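HUMAN:
Sorry, I am quite new to this. Are you able to go through these amino acid letters and fold codes? The numbers rather puzzle me.
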Amino acid sequence: MLSHALATAPRAGFARRLAAMIYDILVLAALVMLAAGIAMLLVQMLAWGGMVNLSGYSDIADYLNTGLRRWLYFAYLVAVILSFYVYFWCKAGQTLGMRAWRIVVVKQNGLPLVPLQALARALLALFGVGNFWLWLRWGKGLALQDQLTASQMVVISKEHSKSLNVHQQAR
């Protein structure tokens, strides 16, 4: 059974996780730029409609980063990042970077994460800092976010990766 194979697969180490994170940062940078562009387009459309007054601001970015809007805009961008991880971890068990390094995140029993568990895992990872827990708990193969959410990141073989065909599951 596939879930049993994932539950007993070797756990991903720090170097492999770091490599996947670097890959994902590139994808996330593009996603955040797209989300920022959408936010700026929305503000511009509201300005054209007369619902927003941009006078007194140097540009739309200045408008978005002033007062309470700064925190709402920040929360929006964080929500985009968290949604990226929750979606891919729940649908495929992998982000694009994790797929490149043949890593899958699953529950301890090998089953896929549920959305609340994936969200908690993303928040508890503390932008990757939670992975340093691997060094504090040497030999366990569990990062802080793994232990606190009863999940694990496992390494799969090339053949297993092809059989998962996760890029089609993530649609």
User: Anything to note?
Assistant: The two ends are 23 Å apart (CA to CA). The chain has one domain: 2-169. The CA atoms of residues 73 and 79 lie 10 Å apart.
